Amino acid sequence: MYLKKPLWNEGTEFGKGDASGSDAKAHDYGAVGELVNSLHRQRVYREVTLALRTGLRDARAEFSFLRVRALRSILKFLRSVAESDSTIDLFVQTQSIPELQVVPVLFEHSLKESGDDYSDNRVGDLSHILGVEPKKLTSPSTDAEVALALRVLEGCCLLHPQSTALAHQHNAIQVLMNILSTRGVLEQGACLDALISLMVDSSSNQMDFEKCNGIMEVADLIRDKQGDENLSQGRPNIIFIIYSDTMLNLSLSLTQL
């Protein structure tokens, strides 16, 4: 969903009247301008919250194709938000509201670890046959869904730095390292970008990356797939820089103890 421009705000330019205009007119223009700006901000906030509520509702769906559609919509929405500082500020405000937070939904559904609801509940458990409530099955995440979820995660962390803390609460680094080692090239490229966004200015995620022996995992991945340009275009270098900076800061902290 793209954020729309208000028709009633087009062509409205305040402060460009006649130089001979009175102070009263200037004051009126200023008051009207403030009103227009306030109405515009309220309208954009409603659009932001509506886009998030709609997208997150489908991102929790049982079927992968619905989640994929929702993730595409959220990704387009984030790109639209990134076009101006004012919409970024509004998005940041929404992420303080639990029901509008994007990152938890990603890890609870699209980035959920394998071996969960769908595979565990298909066979072996017949209690639902004698019960009243029907068995709820959730289709596993497809490659496209995982890649889209990683792109959405990257966008959230770049627009809203506190999203890295939310991701840390869901063991984001461990989840992404598992994706990096088990998924295909499409997901691996998105995973490297998401790792970068997670570790920027986040010491907790950086330390998790160190605990997972992440630097060696990335090095092994690049060595195994040297011919793949999608995995070798600068991303590993950025990760190495972040990792080196983390280790340097850790060493300095230890020497000061």
TrEMBL record:
Coiled coil location: none
Pfam families per the UniProt record, alphabetical: CDC14
Protein name: Uncharacterized protein LOC113865115 isoform X3
Organism encoding this protein: Abrus precatorius
